[in-house]
Each structure stands twice: as C-alpha cells, then as structure tokens.
Amino acid sequence: MGIQKTRTTAYHPQSNGIIERWHRTLKTALKTRLSQHTKWIDELPTVLLGLRATPRADTSLSAAQLTYGCSIRLPCDFFSSAASNKQEMDYDFVTKLRESINKALSLKCTEMQSHRNNKSVFIHQDLKTCKQVFVRNDAMKKQFQPTYDGPYKVLERNSKTFKLQIPGRKSTIISIDRLKPAYIINEDTAEDSSSSSKPPARKLETSSSTSTQLKPILKTTKYGRVVKPPVRFRWGESDVAARLIKPKRE
C-alpha cells in the first residue's frame, strides 16, 4: 500500500514536527470547547471535524482536501432548501478528483521542501571522528542537575543518529541534535608529554662572594651624617647586645 514505517528517537520532537504541531493545535481547540465544563472525549469529534475542514494558511487547502480531493461536508450542508436546483451528475468526477488530489499534493510537497531547505541545524564537525560523546538530557531536571550526561562510547554513527554504549542499558540510538563531542585527556599521553616538556633541574652554583657575610647598607642624611641605628637593630650585633643587656641569673 506504499506505507513506510519510520522510527524516531526519544526526546526529539523535531522528528515528528507535524504531529507535535498538530497536537498543540488540537489541545488549544479542546481548551476552547471545554469552557462549559464538559468532558473532552465528548467534544473530540466536533473539534476534529472543524480542524479537518479548516483550510491551511500556507496552502489554502484543508486536511480533507489533501486526503480526499474535495472539501468535507459540514452539518450545515445537509440543510438545503427543497426548491434548489439539483446539479446533474458529472461523469468526469473521477478524473477531476485525481487532478485535484495531484495538484494539492504537489503544492504541499513544494511547501514542505521550501520549509526544510530554509531550516539549518548546527552540528559540530568533531562528531564525525570523536570516539565518545555527551548526551543532552531533555527530561525534567532538578535545580543543579547537569545538562549533559556521559561521556558514552560511540558504537555506530550515521548522518542523523548515533548508537551509543550506555552503562546498564542496551545500545541506545540517540539523535545527533542532542550530542556534543567529548574531549577526554589520555592520562598516559599526558604523563609522557609532561615529563618530556619538564626542563631538567639546575643546581644553584654558589660563589665565594655570596658565601661571605653581607655588609649592611649605611644611610646618610642630607648633611652627610651617617645614620647609626640602635644596637638591637645593627647587623650582626643583636646577639652581642642581647648578651650584654641580659642580666646573669644567679
């Protein structure tokens, strides 16, 4: 019958963009109808009938016209006057129906193709060669829960999805939009590079001039007088002064 089933990854509504957008429109219409405190299951047929008969703004065609090739009959169409002239049966109805369906489908395909071409998604170039990746957690998170989980090992990859090895789970397929490459430092390589880049230690060479006792710097006033600090602050004389001042214990 020409039906092809496609599988999508979890937490990736972009894969089912048309369905997600339809669900939002359906919920908005149900909220409007439930203003009289009725059950949503009772209002669902009326809401679906209105949505299927409403023309779209981009194609000016309704969902019924795209499916059946003609507009759906609403309840108001059943109440017609008896004096109205009956139209003669059109024997070319099947031909016109096919032409209408083909025209509607071609218009819809053109609109979808232009929308797909105008939308671009950023994809990191290192995802083509990386061995481990981080996965963005789109579920409800706590206040300080990290945004990305991982890193996880990459088993297989293609242009849209990655197959990852997650501990405690089977191989999981994740959309490429939720991934970013993991840059992990190899400890063995890091140790080798750090040891090779470290310069050899140099031994300090002490000269005979540094081994000698340093002489104090004499300060002079503007008149040329030498400033002599107290004995306790003089260089090399503090111990001698302390012994002279300190009384002997008997």
TrEMBL record:
<protein>
    <submittedName>
        <fullName>(apollo) hypothetical protein</fullName>
    </submittedName>
</protein>
<dbReference type="InterPro" id="IPR001584">
    <property type="entry name" value="Integrase_cat-core"/>
</dbReference>
<dbReference type="GO" id="GO:0015074">
    <property type="term" value="P:DNA integration"/>
</dbReference>
<feature type="region of interest" description="Disordered">
    <location>
        <begin position="187"/>
        <end position="219"/>
    </location>
</feature>
<feature type="domain" description="Integrase catalytic">
    <location>
        <begin position="1"/>
        <end position="83"/>
    </location>
</feature>
